[in-house]
Amino acid sequence: MIASHLLSLSIWLPIAGAVIVLASASESSAGMTRVLSLIVALCGFLITVPLYTGFDASQSAMQFVEMAPWIPQYNINYFLGVDGISVLFILLNSFITVLVVLAGWKVIKQKVAQYMAAFLVMSGLMNGIFCALDAALFYVFFEASLIPMYIIIGVWGGPNRVYAAFKFFLYTLAGSLLMLIALMYLFLQSGGSFNILEWHTLPLPMSAQTLLFLAFLAAFAVKVPMWPVHTWLPDAHVEAPTGGSAVLAAIMLKLGAYGFLRFSLPIAPDASHALSGFMITLSLIAVIYIGFVALVQTDMKKLIAYSSISHMGFVILGFFIFNQIGYEGALVQMISHGFVSAAMFLCVGVMYDRMHSREIAAYGGVVNTMPKFASFFLLFAMANCGLPATSGFVGEFMVVLGAIKYNFWVGFAAATTLILGAAYTLWMYKRVAFGAVANKHVAELTDIDNREFLVLGLLALCVLGMGLYPFPFTDVMHASVDHLLKHVAISKL
Amino acid sequence: MDMQTLYLIVPLAPLFGAIVAGLFGKAIGRSGAHWVTILGVAVSFAASYLIFQDVQAGHIYNGTVYTWMESGGLKLEVGFLIDPLTVMMMLVVTFVSLMVHIYTVGYMADDPGYQRFFSYISLFTFSMLMLVMANNFVQLFFGWEAVGLVSYLLIGFWYTRPTAIHANLKAFLVNRVGDFGFLLGIGLIAANCGTLDYAQVFAQGPQLAAQSIELFAGSPWLLISVVCICLFIGAMGKSAQFPLHVWLPDSMEGPTPISALIHAATMVTAGIFMVTRMSPLFELSEAALSFVLVIGAITALFMGFLGVVQNDIKRVVAYSTLSQLGYMTVALGASAYSVAVFHLMTHAFFKALLFLGAGSVIIGCHHNQDIRYMGGIRKYMPITWITSLLGSLALIGFPFFSGFYSKDSIIEAVQLSTIPGSGFAYFSVIAGVFVTAFYSFRMYFLVFHGKERYDQVPNAHGHHDDHHHTGKPHESPWVVWLPLVLLAIPSVVIGYLTIQPMLFGEFFGSSIVISHEHHALAEMKEEFHSALAMAMHGFTALPFILALAGVALSWLFYMKRPDLPAAIMKVFKPIHTLLDNKYYLDKVNEWFFAGGARLIGRGLWRGGDQMLIDGLMVNGSAKLVGWIASVTRLLQSGHIYQYAFSMIFGVFVLLTLWFNRA
Q1: Under a CB-based contact definition with an 8 Å cutoff, are residues B548 and B278 in contact?
Q2: How many Å apart are CA B432 and CA B303, to the nearest integer?
Q3: C-alpha torsion angle, residues B22, B27, B33, B35 (rounded to 10)
Q4: Which of A101, A185, A227, B294 could pair with A286 in a Cys bridge, judged by C-beta atoms 3.0 to 4.6 Å apart?
């Protein structure tokens, strides 16, 4: 019974848990609320583990499939399933949710139940996005996931939170409206089906493919975000509470990239090939332009936000060079970025909780007063600049190899991240952590407590584990990526 | 115990020490930290020695430990290649590292970061061993970046000093520029060979040499040349070759033991080792070899000049290291790989000795590093004095000393080389001998001989504000001088003992490949009779005369007529200014690259993100909506007479149109 509904459970268990958390909450029982939320998040994570252990890596077909009619008049179904591309994201998402609940343990003192519930609901909805195989269902999850994030930024955010929340919401909504039109068109063309897998095999003329590709691009490029529709991200990150930033960077950005793999590439392969030069250019601009912009940021969260955009540029680059190492590299980069960016934002959160400033200039010499924290921070900073033996290296390395295979100069441009990434990350680290104690606030800092140690330690294990032994991660993907590549290589005209 | 286990023990023993000292430093205390790390490195050294004997017996190993990742037909593994080249490096690395570990017990005795330091140097030893033992490019790159990381941590060890944390960031970034090239080289190999395993790549070398790549439309390059030059750019970063050398002098901000271990004996020679390892590829590209030769020659000579004007004892040795690395690179360019590695080995011993000697002097002089305020120290520090003299003699290539055999072989190899640029390289290395002898003995005389000036240290000295520089110098404790003695022995004798097997015998076997067209080494072999004869002949050869002239000149300047240098400096003021500013390369880097990058970043951020995208497009469209709304809002004023008037006006217009419709 449970085994055949694992995906449904991964979606609805956190959401149902959120309802219980909300229902049982009162102002006096914040401690109970936290414990309950943690239990829900842990259960939500544990339920996803069998998805990996029971996954058959040798086949590319959808697994753990669930199918039930939802709105029969329009042939809309409750259709779930995962392949080697999506399964890891469900695990990642559920894992990050546990950490985020832990990270918000002490800082969030007002509306605790609502805060925790928002994250749990979001976790369930995003799991839904990754396993929905019916386009209408996908769209519902895709849009619904905006709401909790909008609330998280708008309620628990910084002073400028309303502007940021609006910008985030409108930016992403504007993009997805075009996608809705594309979905309608495909529904009509396919003779009344919302089945994404059927759409994959639907023959389409070039003009239709191009328009569809652009419509999907509007939705997904904003989410990724790609240059030049990226400016909502730094604002959103700056205003979002730490947990919101972590989820936003670790999971939400991946939704856009995932959309390319599920929709754009397999549905419009010819247009994808025709527009690949355009996409590669945009992603290289993201890598280089954003790298320079990140260099001069004075706000740590903004810097990491820009660094995220640059790293996501690698993902899109990997998708449009059409070779296996590029695709798998991009997927590995997505997972790794989930760990590293979450860790970086949580690190900034640790400092912000104590100093209430994100300005680099407000810090200096943090290592003197917080040596344990500084060690973790350095590990994640190194992962952020792609040091071998950390997860950050694996994806970047694979994408660069794939890019050089595609064209030397594309690889050349991509590899500049080796210099730029190190420059902006380590320069920030130097100004924040190294040096003599800069002021009395830094002098009064206390090192991380056990809870923070646990959160950062878990992420450190992930970052190092994936860097030292990425084989289990890539092994899951092979069959599905191979299948996708073969599919994309065949014209649908 | 089978050999595979032994291979694993070599890198893992120091790693174990590093982890224990790093994570549980507080629990095990200071002595616990040094015991566990010293033991780890000692085990590693002993295991290396056993492996060395096994390799001598003819057992070469090339195997996988585990599969790291597999994608798109490219299988990336972690594995070991144990051959004579590897095992020689393993011995050098573990021996020097062991000496430095012991020395550190004395040198860092008062430092609050004692455990952390031991953890770092053991971690470095692990990384360096992974680098030299790799049998594939990915693991090589892992070791390559890992030693860079530890170097970063150790240069910035005293993290409260602004100079130290500037230097470590600079070192990391300059190395990253080199790694950028290195990664491109690896990428080209992966793309064209479909593998990153050494043996398989080397087997495909001839195919690479037959292909060309059009980097710029209309000008095809040999693929192998592009690959080799890219790889060598990596070596230029790590081995501090011009113009990527700028980080090495600044790295002296780190504690002296690591200057000896990382920035003289081992890590900086990783580039030399790497090119030697890649000899089957470099041999196929005349263009790459020529490039290597010229870069090496520039480094050998022009970095030597800079050593002449330095007053910081560590910086003199640092510039000497740069220059010697240039010598090794020149040997690589002349296809004399075994000579380069031979010099790498002798240099590791005598340069580690000189650095540790300098460190001993620094402790003896109460943390004063300025050689102008030393002098006459030989009386107070006899062991340091004698060992430093031996090291200096080895460095200038005095016959019978180890440096003589390696340096003279390099000079000879360059002389016999026919690769474009070898004429300039020959001039550089021969002129370099004079310069080396001059600055080495300038330092030697200023430190150990002449008038005692240790009491003249100005109070406003920049470094170590917490220490007193005055007081009589004193000899260092035994943990400091013992490594000096143990390093002095190979510095003197290792060249005499090993030149025959390493250069002209079968020691390296198949681990170094030299094409038949490059016959410098073969010609040298014909002329070589014995180590004794070579040294005897050395007494009458040009390099020895130049070295003597250098020593004599420094004696004249700094012992006999101390007023002369100031007078000469006055006459050649512009040249001195140029050298004093290190050819202005630091300023160019600071201003052009660092400043330029910030300028571009600020321009893109303010102009692109804030003005164009956010200002014009995002907020602009929001404002447009707002503006339209505000205009239309005027129509809905809520005043009944306005609505009535509009209605009458509208009816009037419509009626007019209706009546005039015909």
Answers
A1: no
A2: 9
A3: -140
A4: A227
DSSP string, A172-233: HHHHHHHHHHHHHHHHHHTTS--BHHHHHT----HHHHHHHHHHHHHHHHHHTTPTTS-THH
**B381-399 per-residue burial string, b: 16 or more CB within 10 A, e: under 16:** bebbbbbbbbbbbbbbbbb
Helix (H, G, I), strand (E, B) or coil at A69: strand
Q: Which residue has the tokens 């030769």?
A: B293
How open is the CA angle B591-B592-B598, to the nearest 5 degrees? 85
Relative to beta strand B74-82, strand A63-71 is unpaired
Taking the C-alpha atoms of residue B164 and residue B161, their distance in angstroms, rounded to an integer, is: 5
Backbone phi, then psi, for B255, in 5-degree steps?
A: -60, 150
Beta strands in B15-60 (DSSP E): none
Interface ipTM > 0.95: no
pLDDT-derived band at B638, boundaries 50, 70, 90: confident
Tokens of B59: 């057992």
pLDDT digits (tens, 9 = 90+) for B332-359: 998 889 999 999 999 999 999 998 998 8
Q: State the SS3 of B119-158.
A: HHHHHHHHHHHHHHHECEHHHHHHHHHHHHHHHHHHHCCC
**Local structure of B234: helix, strand or coil:** helix
Cβ atoms A9, A40 nearer than 8 A:
no
User: Any residues with CB less than 8 A from the CB of A178 and at least 6 apart, and which?
Assistant: A214, A215, A216, A218, A219
Q: How many CA atoms lie within 13 A of B517 on its CB side?
A: 8
Provide mean pLDDT across the span B602-612.
82
Which tens digit of pLDDT belongs to each residue from B478-491?
888 888 898 899 99
On the 0-12 / 13-18 / 19+ scale of CB atoms within 10 A, B542 is exposed
Asked if A133 and A81 touch (Cβ cutoff 8 Å), the reply is yes
DSSP SS3 for A257: helix
CA-nearest residue to A467 within chain B is B68
- Which amino acid is residue B267, in one-letter code? M
- Pairing, β B212-216 against β B74-82: unpaired
Contact B409, B503 (CB under 8 A): yes
- Which residues does chain B have within 8 Å of residue A295's beta carbon, measured at their own beta carbons? 597-598, 601
Chain centre distance of CA B289: 20
Of A296, A436, A478, the CB nearest to B605: A296
Q: Which amino acid is at B165?
A: I
Beta bridge partner(s), residue B552? none
Predicted local distance difference test score (pLDDT) of residue B624: 81
pLDDT at A384 over 90: yes
β-pairing verdict for B74-82 and B61-71: antiparallel
pLDDT digits (tens, 9 = 90+) for B614-628: 777 777 777 888 888
Rounded to a whole number of angstroms, the distance between the first and last alpha carbons of chain B is 112
Contact: B598, A295; criterion CB under 8 Å: yes
Backbone angles phi, psi at A124, to 5 degrees: -65, -45
**Cα B194 from Cα B70, distance rounded (Å):** 12
d(CA B321, CA A145): 59
Measured between CA atoms, the residue of chain A closest to residue B23 is A372
Pick B187's closest partner by Cβ from A297, A404, A470. Answer: A404
Nearest CA distance, B222 vs chain A (angstrom): 14
By CA distance, what is B75's nearest residue in A? A471
Q: What are phi and psi of A159, to 5 degrees?
A: -65, -30
The torsion angles phi and psi of B240, rounded to 5 degrees, stand at: 50, 55
Q: Do B72 and A469 touch (CB under 8 A)?
A: no
Residue A141: the pLDDT is 92
